[in-house]
C-alpha cells in the first residue's frame, strides 16, 4: 500500500476533524475511527503504553494510515458509522445484528388494511416501527381492533367494484369487527378518519381518539341511545387504560429519544427509549462487544446513529447521561433532575437489568467468560497489575485475648477453594493484640509457601483497616515480598478499601461485583476463624473441667473424651465403665468428684 514510514505518515496528518483508517501489510482494513483532531488522536496510539493486549496487537500490525477530512465532528461521526458498516474492520465494535424486527404496515390501498409484517416492501405503504418484539405489536393491534372496526380481507375495494355489487359482507361484518365497506356500508371518509386516529395512537397520542369518542358518547346519551353510548364508553375505557399503563412521565415530553450506557471491560450495553406524548412507545437494548479501549462517549455516539437509523427515529431531542457529538439539528439534553432525569434513570436501569440478564445466562452457558469478565473487572476496580485469579484473606479471632486464632481462606477464580483454607493458633502474642497477631500469621503463611515453592497469590485481603494492613506489610517486607503481591485492607464500617501508604480509602459501588467478592472473602474468613475459635474455646472448657479433678491430667481427659464423646456421658458413666479406660483408682476419683458436684 505504501512504503512511507509510519512516523512520516503521522507527521503529515492534519489537525482538523476527520476519519482515520488503519491497514496492515496485506492491505486489509484493521480499524476505522473518528477524531476531533486527527493528528493528536492517531499519534496517541503510538505514544503510550496500552493497558489492553488487543490494542498493543493492533498497533503492531499497523503499516499504513488513511484519513478523510470532514468539516465537523458530527460529520466524522456519521462517516465513521457508514465506513464501519461497509468495511467491517476486524478491530471495530460490532453494532449490527441480523435480527428481523416486526413492523406494523398500513397498506397503500383504498380502505387500507393494518397488519404486522417482518418485510418492508417499498410499494407506497406506511410502516410503523420496527418494534422490539412481536408481543408489543400484538398488544397494539388488539387495542386498535377493539376500538376501530377495520377490514381484514384483501379485496380490491375500488369505487367501481363496490358500486357494481361485486362483493358481499363476510362473517367479520356480522360479528361487528368490520363495518362492511365492501358493500358500501361504510364511507371512505369515515374509514380514513379512523386511520388518522390509528396513526396518532401508534405514535402514542391518544388525545384525538379520546376527544372524538367522548363527543360521540355525549351526543348518543343526549339522544337517549344509552346502549350505544355504553359501547363508546367501553372504547374510551380501553384507550384510557392502555394510556395509563404506558404513561410514566410528564405528558408534555414528546418526540424524545433517551439513551444510556452501562459498560464493563469487554462489553457495553446501550438502552434506547422513545417517548411520545409522555409515553414510552419503544424500548431496545443493544450489546456491543469492545475490540479496543473504546470510551463510553465514543460507543454511545456510534450506537445512537445505528439505533436511530434502524428504528427510523425522527425525534429532534436526545436525553443522554453526558455531552456527546451528534448530527446538526439534534438537541442534546443532559438531565440533572425532575421528570427528564427520572426517565434517563429508567433507561439506565433497563440497561443494567439487560446486562445482569446476560451475566446470568453466561454463568450457565459460558462460565469461563463470566469468570474472565469478573477477574478483569476486579483488576480494573482495584488498580491491580494482574488479574487476581488467586486471592487469600486473613482474619483474627479472640475474646479478651483468650484462645487467639487466625484464619486464612483461599479463592481461585472468584470461588472458594476450601481444601486450601488454613487455621492458625497464635503462638508469639499474649493478650488481645490484633496487629501483632496479623503480623505473625501473614509471616508464617508466606514463609511456608516460599519454603515449599508453592504459588503465591496475586492479591491478599486483610480484614481490618490501616492498622492491620500495616502489620501485614511488615511481614511481607521481612520476606522480601513487598511489591510482588498486591495487598488491600477492608474496614467493616463503610466497606472502605485501603491500599498501602495511601491514606485515602477507595469506596467501591455497593452493587459492584468486585466489592461483593471481597465481602464474600471477608465473611468466609470470619466464619472460618470464629468456628475454629469456638471449637477451641469449647474444647478448652471441657478439658479444664476434667483436669480440675485430682489425678486427671490432659492425657487422661483426652482418653476419656475419645471413648465417651462428651463430659455429660462421662458424668453418667458407671465406675466399672470408667475403670476399663483409666483404671479403678482414677475411675473412683472421677465418679466421686462428679457425684459431689
UniProtKB/TrEMBL annotation:
Locate the UVR domain: which residues?
207-242
Q: Name one Pfam family in it.
A: UvrC_RNaseH
Residue ranges of domain UvrC family homology region profile in the record = 262-476
Q: Is DNA repair found in the keyword set?
A: yes
Subcellular compartments: Cytoplasm
Q: Which family does it belong to?
A: Belongs to the UvrC family.
What is the name attached to this protein's record? UvrABC system protein C
Record the organism.
Maribacter dokdonensis
Amino acid at each position: 500500500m505504501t512504503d512511507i514510514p509510519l512516523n512520516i505518515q503521522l507527521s503529515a496528518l492534519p489537525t482538523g476533524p476527520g476519519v482515520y483508517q488503519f491497514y496492515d501489510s496485506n492491505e486489509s482494513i484493521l480499524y476505522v475511527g473518528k477524531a476531533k483532531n486527527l493528528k493528536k488522536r492517531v499519534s496517541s496510539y503510538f505514544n503510550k503504553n496500552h493497558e489492553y493486549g488487543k490494542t498493543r496487537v493492533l498497533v503492531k500490525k499497523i503499516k499504513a494510515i488513511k484519513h478523510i477530512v470532514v468539516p465537523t465532528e458530527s460529520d466524522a461521526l456519521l462517516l465513521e458509522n457508514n465506513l464501519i458498516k461497509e468495511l467491517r474492520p476486524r478491530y471495530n465494535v460490532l453494532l449490527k445484528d441480523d435480527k428481523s424486527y416486526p413492523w406494523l404496515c398500513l397498506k397503500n390501498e383504498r380502505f387500507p388494511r393494518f397488519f404486522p409484517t417482518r418485510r418492508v416492501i417499498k410499494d407506497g405503504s406506511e410502516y410503523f416501527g420496527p418494534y422490539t418484539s412481536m408481543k408489543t405489536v400484538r398488544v397494539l393491534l388488539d387495542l386498535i381492533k377493539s376500538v376501530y372496526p377495520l377490514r381484514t380481507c384483501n379485496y380490491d375495494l375500488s369505487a367501481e367494484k363496490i358500486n357494481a355489487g361485486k362483493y358481499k359482507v363476510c362473517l367479520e361484518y356480522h360479528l361487528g369487527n368490520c363495518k362492511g365497506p365492501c358493500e358500501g356500508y361504510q364511507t371512505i371518509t369515515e374509514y380514513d378518519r379512523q386511520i388518522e386516529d390509528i396513526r396518532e395512537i401508534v405514535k402514542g397520542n391518544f388525545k384525538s381518539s379520546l376527544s372524538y369518542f367522548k363527543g360521540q358518547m355525549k351526543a348518543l346519551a343526549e339522544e337517549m341511545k344509552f346502549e350505544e353510548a355504553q359501547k363508546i364508553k367501553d372504547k374510551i375505557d380501553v384507550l384510557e387504560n392502555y394510556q395509563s399503563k404506558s404513561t410514566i412521565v410528564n405528558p408534555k415530553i414528546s418526540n424524545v429519544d433517551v439513551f444510556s450506557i452501562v459498560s464493563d471491560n469487554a462489553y457495553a450495553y446501550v438502552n434506547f427509549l422513545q417517548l411520545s406524548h409522555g409515553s414510552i412507545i419503544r424500548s431496545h437494548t443493544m450489546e456491543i462487544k469492545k475490540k479496543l479501549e473504546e470510551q463510553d462517549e465514543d460507543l454511545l455516539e456510534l450506537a445512537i446513529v445505528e439505533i436511530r437509523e434502524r428504528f427510523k427515529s425522527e425525534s429532534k431531542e436526545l436525553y443522554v447521561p453526558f455531552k456527546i457529538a451528534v448530527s446538526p439539528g439534534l438537541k442534546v439534553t443532559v438531565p440533572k433532575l425532575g421528570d427528564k432525569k427520572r426517565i434517563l434513570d429508567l433507561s439506565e436501569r433497563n440497561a443494567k437489568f439487560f446486562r445482569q440478564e446476560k451475566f446470568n445466562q453466561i454463568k450457565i452457558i459460558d462460565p469461563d467468560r463470566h469468570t474472565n469478565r469478573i477477574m478483569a473487572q476486579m483488576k480494573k476496580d482495584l488498580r491491580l497489575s494482574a488479574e487476581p485469579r488467586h486471592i487469600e484473606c486473613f482474619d483474627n479471632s479472640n475474646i479478651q485475648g483468650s484462645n487467639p486464632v487466625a484464619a486464612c481462606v483461599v479463592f481461585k477464580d472468584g470461588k472458594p477453594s476450601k481444601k486450601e483454607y488454613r487455621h492458625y493458633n497464635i503462638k508469639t502474642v499474649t493478650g488481645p493484640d490484633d496487629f501483632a497477631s496479623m503480623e505473625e500469621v501473614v509471616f508464617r503463611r508466606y514463609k511456608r509457601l516460599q519454603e515449599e515453592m508453592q504459588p503465591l497469590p496475586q492479591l491478599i485481603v486483610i480484614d481490618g483497616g490501616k492498622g492491620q494492613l500495616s502489620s501485614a506489610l511488615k511481614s511481607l517486607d521481612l520476606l522480601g515480598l513487598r511489591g510482588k503481591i498486591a495487598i488491600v485492607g477492608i474496614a467493616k464500617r463503610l466497606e472502605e478499601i485501603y491500599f498501602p501508604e495511601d491514606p485515602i480509602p477507595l469506596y467501591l459501588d455497593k452493587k459492584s461485583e468486585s466489592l461483593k467478592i471481597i465481602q464474600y472473602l471477608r465473611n468466609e474468613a470470619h466464619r472460618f476463624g470464629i468456628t475454629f475459635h469456638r471449637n477451641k474455646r469449647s474444647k478448652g472448657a471441657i478439658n479444664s473441667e476434667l483436669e480440675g479433678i485430682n489425678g486427671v491430667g490432659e492425657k487422661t481427659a483426652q482418653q476419656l473424651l475419645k471413648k465417651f464423646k462428651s463430659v455429660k456421658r462421662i458424668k453418667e458413666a458407671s465406675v466399672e465403665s470408667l475403670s476399663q479406660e483409666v483404671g479403678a483408682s482414677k475411675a473412683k476419683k472421677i465418679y466421686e468428684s462428679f457425684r459431689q458436684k
